[in-house]
Write a structure and sequence with these properties.
Chain A has 268 residues and is mainly beta. Chain A is built from three helices and 16 strands. The chains are: A mainly beta (268), B mainly alpha (354). At the A-B interface, loops of A face helix 4, helix 5, helix 7 and helix 10 of B.
Chain lengths: 268, 354
C-alpha cells in the first residue's frame, strides 16, 4: 500500500512538472508530444542519494551525493527516414537526480511514428562559445547552469557526479569524497580534449513511438552510472577520486557514452 | 562693524556644482574614451554588440570598484587592479582575495583589453565578456557565486535603476553585468606613452639611448613582444625554474603537453607601474628579469627556442651598453597619463547614483 502511495505521488509530481518545449521554429507541424524520461540506475538499482551503496567494475563500493548531466541537440527519426531536429535554442536540458521534474523532457513534434532518438551528452562546441545573451535559462552560468560551468577555462561541465567511497584514502577533511566533473568541448584557439558524445537509441528494439492527438508516448531511457567506470578502460575511484580538466577525463567520457539504454517505449 | 561673509556666494555655488558633477559621475560620455589610436590596429572586441554609452561606462566603472561582487563585500575588481599601478596589484607578487586567501599567479595590468583575444596567464578565456566570471567565482579571489551576485545586484537600491538607464531594463542578468564591466574595461586604452607619441610623430623624439635601445628591442624582443601591444598573445616558456608546486600554465587549459609551463606573453607597456614581473611575480626589477634571461634560464621548463643560443646554451645576453639602452627604451613605454586619467579614477565611482 505504502509503495502504491509513493508511486502515485511520484507520478503526480512527474505529471505536474513536465516541461514543455516550444514548437518547431521552422514552422513545421509540432502538434503532438513525446516525452523522454531519464531514469538513473546503478546496475539494476535505481540511483538514490540517501547513502545507498553501489559497486563498480573495480569492486569499489560508493554512494552518490550529486548526479547531473546536460542533454542537448535532440533529433528524432521517423519511419520514413525523415529526421526531425528540435529547434536548437530550446534543445538544452539539465537532468538532475535531485530534481525529478528535470528528468522528464516533453518535446513538441510533428505527428508521426518515430524509430530512433538521437541526443548529445554535453553542450555543442558552438554554444560553448556564444555570447552570454544566447545563454539564458538552463545555460546561464548564474542561473540554470550554475555549478555546470568553468569560469577560468570558459566552457560547460557536461556530466557531474560526486559521492563517497570507502576505497578512497582519507582526505584532509577526513572524508572519502570523489568528484567527477567532465566537460571540454575541443578547445577555442587550439584543439584540446573533446568529450562531447552523441547517442542514438533505436526505438525499434522495443517499439516505434506513435504520436498524435490525445497521445504522449514516453521513451524511457536508463542511464547506468556503473558504465562510467568500465568499457574502454576501468576507472578506479581509489586511483582517480578527482577527475576534472585533464586528459584522463577522456576515458570517463568514452565510458559514459554507452551508459544510456532504451528501457521501454510506452505508447500512451 | 560689518560682518564678513565666511563663504563667498560664488564659492558655495562652485562647491555645489562640483559636488553635483561628482554625483553624476563627473563626466559625460565622449566617443574618444574608446578609440583606436592612430598607431594601433582595429580593436578585436566587438563593440557593435555592446556599444559603450555614458550610462553603461559609469555603471561598469561602479561595478568594477564595488566589493558587492565578492562573497563578503571586501574585494572588488579594483582591489587587485589598481589604476596607479596600471591596473595591476601594486607591488604584490601574488594577490590576496577574501579571507586573505592567496592566489597562485600575479594580477596582470589591465590595458588595451579590446585588442586582446586571450585573457588570463593561461588564455583560458577568449571573450572579455566572460572574463569577470573567473575572479568572481574563484574561491581565493572574490569567492562568490554568480547567482548570488545577480541576486545582490537586483536587491540593491541603486543598481536596477542604473541598469535601466544603461540597458533599458532593470532586470539584471549575467549578460548585462558582463557587458557593463566590458564597457568600462575596453575604455582602458593606454596609448599615450612617449613611444606612442614618437610613433605618431607628435613632436616628440627618442634620445640617442632610446633610439639605440629601440634597435636592441627590435632585434631581440620584438618576436614575442611586437608593437604596438608589445605582446603577440602567444604562450611561451621563459625557462623559469619551477618553484614548489609547479604551475603548468597553459597546459592546464590546452592539455597539450608541449605547452606545459608556458604562459601568455605579457605586454611591455607600463613596466614602471606593473612590477613585480612574470606569472608569479618573482622578479621585482627589470634587471632581475634580464639577469634571468642571461643566465637563469632552466631547461627543466623547456624554454622557448628563442632563448637558446646557437651553441645550444640557454640565454639572451646583452652587453652593458645594450642593457642600458634597452632599459631606456622600455621606459618610453610608460604611460603616466593613463595611470592618472581621472576617467578611470576609483574616487567618485560609487557616488554615481542618478
Amino acid at each position: 500500500m505504502k509503495s502504491i502511495i509513493t508511486l502515485s505521488a511520484a507520478l503526480l509530481l512527474l505529471a505536474s512538472c513536465n516541461r514543455k518545449m516550444t514548437p518547431g521554429s521552422d514552422g513545421k507541424d509540432a502538434s503532438s508530444t513525446l516525452t523522454l524520461s531519464f531514469e538513473n540506475y546503478a546496475g539494476d538499482k535505481t540511483v538514490s542519494m540517501n547513502g545507498e551503496n553501489y559497486t563498480n567494475a573495480s569492486g569499489e563500493t560508493f554512494s552518490v551525493t550529486l548526479l547531473q548531466y546536460f542533454i542537448s541537440n535532440i533529433s528524432l527519426k521517423k519511419t520514413d527516414g525523415t529526421i526531425i531536429t528540435l529547434p536548437q535554442d530550446s534543445s538544452y536540458f539539465l537532468i538532475k537526480e535531485s530534481l525529478p521534474a528535470s528528468k522528464q523532457i516533453t518535446l513538441h513534434v510533428p505527428k508521426g511514428n518515430y524509430t530512433a532518438v538521437t541526443f548529445m551528452l554535453g553542450i555543442d562546441s558552438l554554444r560553448n562559445t556564444k555570447p552570454l545573451s544566447e545563454r539564458t535559462g538552463i545555460l546561464d552560468p548564474a542561473g540554470g547552469a550554475e555549478g555546470m560551468y568553468w569560469g577560468w577555462n570558459s566552457g560547460y561541465i557536461f556530466f557531474k557526479m560526486e559521492g563517497h567511497s570507502t576505497a578512497i584514502p582519507d582526505n584532509k577533511a577526513g572524508t572519502k569524497k570523489f568528484r567527477y566533473h567532465i566537460g571540454l568541448f575541443g578547445g577555442m584557439n587550439s584543439p584540446t580534449v573533446n568529450n562531447i558524445k552523441n547517442i542514438t537509441l533505436d526505438l525499434k528494439e522495443k517499439q516505434v513511438a506513435k504520436t498524435g492527438a490525445g497521445k504522449n508516448p514516453v521513451i524511457r531511457i536508463h542511464t547506468n552510472i556503473l558504465q562510467m567506470f568500465t568499457g574502454t578502460e576501468n576507472i578506479s575511484i581509489a586511483k582517480n577520486p578527482v577527475v576534472m580538466v585533464s586528459p584522463f577525463s577522456k576515458h570517463i567520457a568514452d565510458n559514459y557514452a554507452s551508459m544510456f539504454s532504451l528501457a521501454a517505449v510506452d505508447n500512451k | 562693524m560689518k560682518k564678513t561673509q565666511f563663504f563667498p556666494r560664488s564659492l558655495v555655488f562652485g562647491i555645489l556644482l562640483f559636488a553635483s558633477l561628482l554625483l553624476a559621475g563627473g563626466f559625460t560620455w565622449k566617443e574618444e574614451w574608446f578609440r583606436q589610436p592612430a598607431n594601433f590596429p582595429a580593436p578585436v572586441y566587438n563593440s557593435k554588440a555592446n556599444p559603450v554609452t555614458d550610462a553603461g561606462f559609469k555603471l561598469g566603472k561602479k561595478l568594477f570598484y564595488d566589493p558587492i561582487l565578492s562573497a563578503d563585500y571586501t574585494i572588488s575588481c579594483g582591489s587587485c587592479h589598481i589604476q596607479a599601478a596600471a591596473f595591476s596589484h601594486h607591488g604584490h607578487d601574488l594577490s590576496h582575495g577574501i579571507h586573505d586567501l592567496l592566489g597562485t599567479r600575479n594580477a596582470p595590468g589591465l590595458q588595451n583589453l579590446a585588442w586582446y583575444s586571450r585573457y588570463m596567464w593561461d588564455g583560458g578565456i577568449t571573450n572579455l565578456d566572460l572574463q569577470p566570471i573567473a575572479p568572481i567565482t574563484n574561491p581565493v579571489e572574490m569567492g562568490d557565486t554568480l547567482s548570488a551576485v545577480i541576486r545582490k545586484l537586483n536587491a540593491d537600491p541603486q543598481y536596477p535603476g542604473l541598469f535601466e538607464k544603461a540597458f533599458g531594463t532593470n532586470r539584471i542578468s549575467t549578460d548585462l553585468v558582463m557587458k557593463a564591466l566590458s564597457q568600462f574595461m575596453i575604455c582602458l586604452v593606454s596609448a599615450d606613452s612617449k613611444y606612442d607619441k614618437v610613433m605618431r610623430k607628435e613632436g616628440v623624439v627618442f634620445t640617442a639611448d632610446e633610439t639605440a635601445g629601440y634597435q636592441v628591442y627590435r632585434q631581440n624582443c620584438a618576436s614575442c613582444h611586437p608593437e604596438p601591444l608589445f605582446t603577440n598573445q602567444q604562450f611561451r616558456s621563459t625557462g623559469l625554474p619551477v618553484l614548489e608546486e609547479g604551475d603548468e600554465g597553459r597546459y592546464l587549459v590546452s592539455l597539450d603537453s608541449s605547452e606545459r609551463f608556458t604562459f601568455r606573453v605579457p605586454s611591455l607597456r607600463n613596466l614602471k607601474f606593473t612590477f613585480p614581473y612574470m606569472h608569479d611575480g618573482r622578479f621585482y626589477t627589470i634587471d632581475e628579469v634580464l639577469d634571468h634571461y642571461a643566465t637563469g634560464i632552466s631547461h627543466t621548463t623547456r624554454p622557448d627556442p628563442s632563448f637558446i643560443l646557437p651553441d645550444g646554451s640557454p640565454g639572451i645576453r646583452f652587453s652593458p651598453d645594450q642593457r642600458k639602452t634597452l632599459k631606456a627604451f622600455l621606459l618610453t613605454l610608460n604611460d603616466t597619463a593613463f595611470v592618472k586619467n581621472p576617467l578611470y579614477d576609483e574616487a567618485g565611482s560609487q557616488l554615481y547614483i542618478k
